[in-house]
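User: Can you predict the 3D structure for this chain?
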Amino acid sequence: MPSRIVLFGATGYTGRLTAAALREAGAEPVLAGRNGTALEVLAEELGGRFETRVADVADPDSVRALLAGGEVLISTVGPFARWGAPAVDAAIDAGSAAYMDSTGEPPFIRRVFDEWGPRAEAAGVPLLTALGYDWAPGNLAGALALDEAGAAARRVEIGYFLTGGGMGGMSGGTRASTAGVMLEEGFAFRGGRVVGEIPGRHVKSFDVGGRSRQAVSVGSSEHFTLPPLSPGLTDVEVYLGWFGSLSRPMQVGSFGLAAIGRIGPLKRGLAGLTGRFVKGSTGGPSEAERATGGSYIVARVLGGDGEALSEVRLAGVDGYTFTARFLAWAAVRAAAAGVDGAGALGPASAYGLAEFERGVAAAGIERA
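Assistant: Here is the predicted structure, written as structure tokens:
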């Protein structure tokens, strides 16, 4: 019997898109969030056939009450560093069929793998974090490139770029998450292990549609999920190319923010000031605006002497559309057939590379 799907954070920007994508996929998820009236309005907009449940991260017991055991839980409650923990704890404690989220926040991703992953493995619960545009397409491009490169692979470099409409229309949740990340220590996979590294420490150029574009280094889920796929891999580098010619200034600024982040009072003051101007779920781009945007992802694998071994390029829809569609695909697939393994997993391991590629294509991103 298929598992029930619970969508927590359903009335936020990403949550609403995901609810609509689940409906399009033929699923009837439980819509959960802290505002009962908003949930009822959303349910009516989606056809009136969805159950709604009130739960608030400020009351972790209410989040646990969403789950009886065996459900697929999708969490779109961000910023995740602030609000994400209760859903992960609830999924593990309840024995969920799978937990998945839309975060792109490196500190939260690291907590999933380092802190919650062992607990979830012991409980038999799969945790699939960062299962949206941040960072599922790079997981696919990297996994495909590693598969093509074979045993000689030593380093993989992945770049994420926006096309078309560019940065316009970023949602409130994304702004809040990005602001928080810049004040936290990042990480990378270097020398065969995950090490601390400030966001933006490195800048690298990638060819995107015949044009060289710069990108800054970031922490992501690929640092945890790709090494198990290729035992000889020593380095994973992920770069965000959203900032174009501002990549170098971003790099300089990241060192200053990292210094502030090490000084408690200054960090708390800047975080408070940021919070006044960067809110959470305050809406995002319209359907028409999303239609003008697109995505481009590059993964290249190098050998021990720096020789190029393989390269994979993906392109497709904007990040918000992809996130909603892919979360819906991942949840429906997990509810119907389960996933492989328990603990903190990457999507290539959980679904298998071929099935993962089909899911990403169904969500609107495929080989360029």
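Confidence is low (pLDDT under 50) at residues 255-263, 266-280. The chain has 15 helices and 16 strands.
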